[in-house]
Amino acid sequence: MIWKFKSSRHQELPLSKDSSNLFLKIMISISVFLFAVTLAGVLAINSMLVNWNASILGSLTVQIVPISNSDRQKAHDEMLEQEQRAVALLSAMPEAKKVTALSEDQLQQLLRPWLGDDVDINELPMPRLIDVKLKSGAEVNFKQLAEKLATIAPQASLDNHKLWLNKLINFAAGLKVLALAVLLLVIGVTSGAIFYTTQTSLGLHKDVIEILHIMGAKDTYIAQQYAGRTAWLGAIGGIIGVMVAVPVIFLIAHLASQIEGGIIDEARLSTASWLAIISLPVFSSLIAMQTAYYTVKRTLERMM
Fold first, then answer.
1. Kindly report the CA angle at 87 between 84 and 91, in degrees rounded to 5?
2. I want to staple 85 with a disulfide (CB 3.0 to 4.6 A). Which of 152, 224, 249, 262 is the partner?
3. For residue 158, with 0-12 CB atoms within 10 Å meaning exposed, 13-18 middle and 19 or more buried, which class applies?
4. What pTM value is reported for the model?
């Protein structure tokens, strides 16, 4: 049996010598860099929102403020009695998973970053705080619970965190929309650059393309050559962009971790998020290939 081997297809169009190749590499590298950093921000915001909903909406806080009384010891004892009654009521709730009354040392640690070390916290009228962790999916009638607390602990106030959490969620959602708009802008600018550089290349190689048509070459064949070359440039530019973006993302994460308060700590990138960022060169290659292919097809249909 005789085997026949076909030689690799020779590209008649000298696309590798186009002066626009370097421009496209740089353009795609910058675009992928911006896309990767912005995508990391969007994914981190999503993670932050999920963690907020899980940790904050799944809890509530009861605060017992000091009673106005000239006798500080008597007022403190009365506040502790109200705290004990409130803890008993909250612990009896079927929706409660864990009820914790914060100690004085824990309260001082919470207030010290806000008041500083120069303030003697022991001289201040310190409230009592009760942290309640709710069971997963638990629905609490906060109005009814507040009424029950008022009967046994008149100085108690209930906070379910929804008011300030909704403001944070709206702020994070606004950042997310802005980031998504940036992503769309990056895709649009990159596609536009590929479109115009491809059209310029078609004009430069017009004579060669006409000869290929005379020899029987179809528009699809010419478009495939452009698509293959541009896909390669998209992949190379994407790899460069991701290689620059990853250290920048780690740097931003390091700077964010130095912010005190714990809110930014909830923004984390999962393994799936990192895989999405690392796979951006494939995404940029596909966009470059599709844009170049359809640009050549439509342009040649108008030219010929």
1. 145
2. 152
3. buried
4. 0.67
Is residue 230 within 8 A of residue 295, CB to CB? The reply is no
Q: Which long-range contacts (CB under 8 A, 24 or more apart) does 294-297 make?
A: 294/223, 295/194, 295/195, 295/198, 295/199, 295/226, 296/198, 296/202, 296/219, 296/222, 296/223, 296/226, 296/227, 297/219, 297/220, 297/223
The Cα–Cα gap between 49 and 176 comes to 11
Residue 244, pLDDT score: 95
Q: Hey, which residues does 98 pair with through a beta bridge?
A: 133
- Bridge partners of 62? 130, 158
Q: What is the dihedral of CA 120, 123, 127, 128, to 10 degrees?
A: 80
Reported as half-sphere exposure (CB side, CA atoms, 13 A), residue 243 has a value of 8
Residue range 99-134, pLDDT digits in tens: 888 887 777 777 776 666 666 666 677 788 888 888
Domains along the sequence of the chain with CATH: 15-54+165-303 (no CATH), 58-160 (3.30.70)
| CB 137, CB 64: distance < 8 Å | no
**Each residue's pLDDT tens digit, 187-230:** 888 888 888 888 887 877 777 777 776 777 777 878 888 888 88
CA distance 269 to 41: 9
Can you tell me the distance from the alpha carbon of 229 to that of 211, in angstroms, rounded to the nearest whole number?
A: 20
Question: How many C-beta neighbours within 10 Å does residue 216 have?
Answer: 7
Distance CA 103, CA 129 (A): 8
